[in-house]
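Table S2 (continued). Query chain:
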Amino acid sequence: MKLSTLRQQFYPVLLLTVVVFASVAMLALTNNVTEALIEYQIKQEILRMLQEIFPDMSRYTFENEIYTIYSDGDEIGYGFLATGKGYGGDIDILIGLNTDMMVKGVTIVSHTETPGLGDRIVKPSFTDRFIGLEITDVAVPAEGGKVDAISGSTISSKAVIDAVRTTAMEKAKALTGKNSTEK
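Corresponding output:
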């Protein structure tokens, strides 16, 4: 093989390798720069949603995946995230409980449900159904609960109901255990 033929085959491979490495380096740099910003924006959005559920909130702490909400130094409730499996995929939910473990509010953080059907879970006409309920009442009437599913988007609304109930019971149990050991 001639040297010029070898160069003709080698240079495109070398050039492609350099381009790939440069692209990977740029993507890694972009990810490092934007990752902190994205995390900050998510925290700010969660804070905004917590303030909607707890209008009297003056501050919060975050420990063991539970936001403890305070108003002027007094503990007024708890917030935490839950995930349900809807028709279109995961549904991320922010749940607020009063200190007496009653549902203070439910907000859909993100979802991939069908527009016009499953996405009705984000509307207050659905999320307000949870307010003031005991955790044990968070179920459809057929299961002894007090939350009606949305006609036409039963899978999506049932996913939210089940996720709220399951996660709220789990977190309430953890909080009750924490509070009883602190006394």
